Amino acid sequence: MKTGLVLEGGAMRGMYTAGVIDVMLENNIRVNGIIGVSAGAVFGCNYKSGQIGRVIRYNTKFCKDPRYMSLRSLIKTGDLFGEQFCYHDIPEILDPFDTEEFRNNPAEFYVVCTDVRTGKPVYHLCEKGDGEDVQWMRASASMPLVSRIVSVSGKDMLDGGISDPIPILKFREMGYEKCIVVLTRPQGYRKKQSPLIPVFRIAMKKYPETVKALEKRHEVYNTALESIETLQQQGDVFVLRPSEAFKMRRTENNPERLRALYKLGRKDAMSRLYEIRSFLHT
To answer: What is the C-alpha to C-alpha distance for residues 142 and 259, in angstroms, rounded to an integer?
Structure first.
């Protein structure tokens, strides 16, 4: 039976996920495959590359840098998170991504994107951690309205969270029957329809299928949570989610707040290490 790790997105709420995966790496907790959505993709790739502490390190170091995330970047380039700085300068020069370790790690790493023309999810296996794979990760994390559409491998794509925000059923369909799911919202959370739907209808009128997906996103998300709860009761899924309520903007740039959420992820994972090991080896 293959074991998997499913990583929800949530932009800077992904600091929680960063704390969890660092504890897993420190304690040599490995799985056969990982699937990440949005922040779960761009942060989760560090689990496969084995780079403990990298996510919290570069985020707290650069979160106030306008090249990393700023209104100026959005106006100037069309991307709130600057493409050149986030997807080239940091991983290639400032805090290098270990492509060799990523490539040599036998665990499969998938990212979820949304094809803007069909509104359907696209699941891509990243095997090399090279420039093309990084573009797939970027596409997965490209939020509508504040990001340009990313073209890669002949497809035009945006945030995977639009169409499959928690891809537990797809991953099980791929053969990962026993999965750890890392959520970035506390117990009891249910998503409501976005108040920005009227804006999406205007700004994305060229992509009506994606608009439809955005209109139904809350339903898809809540249905995924219900599936996770059922699978959890059956013993096929182990869920890690924030044990404490917190407020975190998707675009949070206060390093202390980012560090606090990262520490919560670490605390929750540490407190459940025995359960995680038991789940994976039962």
So the answer is: 23
